Amino acid sequence: MPFKYISFLAGLAAVLAQDAASTCNNYVIISTRGTFEHQGPSIGFKDMIAWTLGNVTGGVEYDTVYPAAQNQTFYLGTDDVVRYIDAGVQSCPDQRYLLLGYSQGASVTDAALYNYTDPESAGYKAIAAVLLIGNPYKIPDKVNDVDQLGGSSNRQLRGSLYNTSLPVGYGNGIPEVFYTSNKLIDICYENDPVCAPQSAHANLTAHILYGGSLAVQNMGTRFLVSKLGGATTNSTNGTSPTTSASGSSGSSIPVSTSTPSSTSSTTVPTGPASGLAVAVQMPALWTTIGLALVSAFLA
C-alpha cells in the first residue's frame, strides 16, 4: 500500500472531522466497506442505511476512511472507527452509534469492538448496534449468527479466517460481551465462502448478494431501527415491512422496496488516534474477495 495513499486517507479523515467539529446527532451509522470498494458507502448496506435514516430522525452516516486493500489495511480502518467513537463520546455524549461492517469491513469492526468491552464504559454504552455481513471471523454456534433469511442454516459454520487454535481476540472474532448484550447480528449468506467456507456448495457469488437481497436489507433495517427504540411489523404481502420509529409525527413509515437514489453522509467530531493499530497481515483471500466486489460494481 503506497505511503502517499495512506497519508491521503489520513488527511481525508482529518478534514471530515474538522468540517463536522460542531455537529452532534441522535445517532451515527458507521459503515465500513469491503475489499476494493471505493471510499464511501458499501454496496452491502445500500438500502438498509437509507431506510434506517428515513425512519428514525436525527441520524447520519459516516463511511470509515481506510484503503480497503487486500493486505494490512483493516487495522487502519479500526483506528479510524475507534478514533471516531472516542472523540464523539467526548464531544457528543448523548450520541449513539450503529456499527456496520461488510467482509473486510467486518474485520475492521471486530477489532474495534475490543476497545469497548467494559459494559460500564461510555463507549460501550454509546454503541447501540453492531451488524455484520460476510464476516470472515464469524464465531460458530452463536445465537446472533443468522443466514440471509434470519434462520440458523449455517450457524454451526465458522468464518474463513477464524482460527480455532487461537483465543478470541484482536483479529479473531467478536468480543463475547457483544454476543450476550443483544446488540449484535452477524448475517452470513448461505454458501458464502467467506463466513461459511465449510458449506457444501460454497461459491464466491454468494458473498456479493447481500446488497441486492431484499430479505437482508429488510432484516438489517428492522434490527437497526429496533435498537434505536423503534418497532417493526412484518408485511404479509411479500413486500418490505412497515417500520414504526420515534419521530416528529409518531406515525408508521413504510420501508421502500425501491433502491434509494442517495443516502445521507456526514461526520461527527473525531480526535487523536486511539493508538490501536493491530498490524495483522491479511491473506490473499482479500484479493479474491475484492475482485468479486469489483465485478459486482461493474455488473
From TrEMBL:
SMART domains: Cutinase (SM01110)
Gene3D superfamilies: alpha/beta hydrolase
Cleavable signal peptide: 1-17
Metal-binding keyword on record: no
Pfam families found in the cross-reference section: Cutinase (PF01083)
Keywords, sorted A to Z: Disulfide bond, Hydrolase, Signal
Alphabetical list of SUPFAM superfamilies matching this protein: alpha/beta-Hydrolases
InterPro entries (UniProt xref): AB_hydrolase_fold, Cutinase/axe
GO molecular function per UniProt: carboxylic ester hydrolase activity
Sequence segments annotated as region (Disordered): 230-272
The protein, known as: Cutinase
Organism from which the protein derives: Gomphillus americanus
